[in-house]
Amino acid sequence: MKADHPQAVNEAPIDFSAHTMAEINRVIGLFPEGKQKSAILRILHFVQDEFGWVSVGAMNRVAQILAIEPIEVYEVATFYTMFHLDPVGKNVLEVCRTGPCQLVGSDDLISYIEEKLDIKVGETTKDGMFTLKTVECLGACGYGPMLMCKYQFYERLNKEKVNEMLDAMRAASNS
Amino acid sequence: MSRKLLIEHAEVPGIASFETYRKHGGYASVEKALKTMSPDEVVDEVKKSGLRGRGGAGFPTGMKWSFLAKPEGVERHLVCNADESEPGTFKDRYLMEKLPHLLIEGMITSSYALGARRSYIYIRGEFMYVLRILEKAIAEAYANGMLGKNILGSGYDLDLVVTPGGGAYICGEETALLESLEGKRGNPRMKPPFPAVKGLWGNPTVVNNVESIAAVVPIVNEGGEAYAQIGIERSTGTKLISASGNLVRPGVYEIELGLSVEEFIYGDDYCRGIANGKKLKACIPGGSSVPILPHYLVTKTAAGTDRLMTYESLADGGFASGSMLGSGGFIVFDEDQCIVRNTWNFARFYAHESCGQCSPCREGTGWMEKVLFRLEHGMGTLEDISLLEEINKKIEGNTICPLGDAAAWPVAAAIRHFRDEFEWHVNSPLEAQKRNYGLIQAPLEA
User: Fold this and answer.
1) Residues of A at the B interface (Cβ-Cβ below 8 Å)?
2) Residue-range definition of the domain harbouring residue A99
3) Strand-pair category, B205-209 with B77-82
4) Which of A47, A79, A111 is the last residue before a domain boundary?
5) Three-state SS for B260?
6) Domain range B18-229, CATH class
7) Residue A32 belongs to some domain of the structure
8) How high is the ipTM of this complex?
9) What does the pLDDT look like over A122-150, one tens digit per residue?
10) pLDDT per residue over B67-116, tens digit each?
11) Which pTM does this prediction carry?
12) Pairing relationship of beta strands B77-82 and A130-135 according to DSSP bridges
């Protein structure tokens, strides 16, 4: 089933952890009465933090929490590119491919990671450790080439730094 | 070296904390405004300063503020646009990461001027770590009586919230940002009504860039007239420039408007020239949406005068031989860069980021990307070059928001100045796969 057509899937809402629920309730409280829908993007980030991606069941639960129709969550989650609507690896490497990074070698960086992990852009390694994606400008143009993983920026990358970064991520995910 | 009004203390250890920021004169503008000035007096100082919106459009901030509708009994809002996503621009991230309290201070003083009691900072989702820095700083500001009820005993109340986007360039457009802030898809709204009349949740709203709001702090502290003394003509004050591309020292610089482009690229206090001893080929001076300039129009105008870092000088020559200061995203190309490849790259960006609401932009950006892809990959024809110009004309001016224009202008400018290089890709496709075209010659009449 293709996740970019969430209405095609009928999944029961799933439960979130106590920590995620506490965070969700906190951010809903930041907005005035009746405007709780404004918290939706932050909530989807929390959901992705917990599960690694945003499933239809999770979106259905978000709709219940915000007391809105599920379609209102689907239309938002499918519009914003940060939300992964399919399962991904433990570490999602999002490499900036836009102009300023390209001027300083993002094409080579992408090829190097593809070769090193033996996957193409959009794929996940067999052990589920890494997913490689390309993204548009991350606002780090003076420090390229760069990538983002788990909201962390890895800047001015070269082969050695990529090797070190991948080793560190592997070790952290295995521990 | 330029005077620094915004980031002078950016590298002071601990400056992200309330205590250290306060020790370096922080929150003086809040004290001055709330204790000694009326809201209208603050607006007047901003008008006198000549401050122009630092997000890209360059619209006078004081004038924007004076358009805010103030009907009885209706709440008003100030929204800070921290969705920094124009390729080549990364100054707001630096400012917020290093000096979160400067933005918060500017938000308080500006919200007071506008009579807003609930203000928001909308930050792009990828800057989640910066959001966390801001959230911590906001909590400190509440704990120290700078936010919340009865700030500094003035009777003025303000709540400030920071909230993230989810990865969409279009949310930097102010009405798309408001849609997103309401928890919806970032589809820009038709204007009018302008946000100043009907903005967030239908309430009158001002949307300002991070740097514009931060600039209100020195304007209130030193007075609008003092601020207007810096700079040239209608380009007053200082500006953060994000320098990227093939430079010895890329990064964020605060300059006094009026600095020469020559000094900015080659000066020891700034970028220190082109990296690896290469030559300058081209420059996009104001973020990816503004026209590219070939090397012979970067440091000099077509008339032969020195090009300056001002709104007026960078636009000198109009679209024929000028560009724009825009957001200050200064992207520099060395002689080894391929203009066709770069133009394709940016076209792909706009095709990816078009929200899809207006057909000319949705379809047009997609076709430009496809046509530029085949030109870059040796499959193009000479007709493709005129086809691009034709698509351009069909997008420009025919869309709800400026993303369509932003996608069309750079392609038009690249063809205008680098037509030989585009034709070379068509006529010598095999060679174009092997090497780059190199520097172009200035036309004889230039």
Assistant:
1) 27, 30-32, 35, 37-42, 44-45, 66, 72, 75-76, 79-83, 97-100, 102-104, 135-144, 148, 151-153
2) 91-174
3) parallel
4) A79
5) strand
6) alpha beta
7) yes
8) 0.95
9) 999 999 999 999 999 999 999 999 999 99
10) 999 999 999 999 999 999 999 999 999 999 999 999 999 999 999 999 99
11) 0.96
12) unpaired
